[in-house]
Description:
The chain is mainly alpha-helical. Helices cover 77% and strands 4% of the residues. The protein contains 7 helices and 3 strands, in the order αααβααββαα. Strands 1-3-2 form a 3-stranded antiparallel beta sheet. Strand 2 (90-92) and strand 3 (101-103) form a beta hairpin. Helix 1 (2-14) crosses helix 2, helix 2 packs across helix 3 (44-55) and helix 4 (62-69) packs across helix 5 (73-85). It is elongated, with a radius of gyration of 23 Å. The termini are far apart. The mean pLDDT is 86.
Amino acid sequence: MLLCNLARCMEQVYGTGVxxxxxxxxxxxxxxxxxxxxxxxxxxLPLKIFSIVYLEPDAISMDDIAKKTGYSxxxxxxxxxxxxxxxxxxxxxxxxTRKVYFRMEKDLIxxxxxxIDVIREIMIIPAKEQLPKLISRYxxxxxxxxxKKKIDIIDDFYRQIMLFEGLLEKWKKDLxxxxxxxxxx
Length: 185
């Protein structure tokens, strides 16, 4: 009852569309949390921030994100560093202000291409450079069965990384082709 009265009051002051449009943010955040967030294993705060920043047409300040989520600025800052390192958001510098702003790519295809590039940079390239050296350094001195088994596990991990790299490259090419096709239509 109180909510209905509040809604009527909001409609009288701001107009019918404003109250309903503010609800779209809540519904979008719920959608992302319930349907997308579970697939990538993100926790509540990163999902809320992802949704808020994605929905903003322009860059949004960390202060505004803190107000919208109800979390402290320190929590927002830590989460933004995580999302920035994952290639999900970009820091924006605005002349004349000390506030920190963030924006997000709205093109999901381009966003996933960037994610593939980040995975390649932080996982694939280091694995290709370091794991063969690690295996070749320790394989000759692994004398007992448990150590030989560990070398086999690391070797198998490396082979899987190489297969994963091929899948990522194929997925990236498919996404780029899809993006071109969408642009051409």
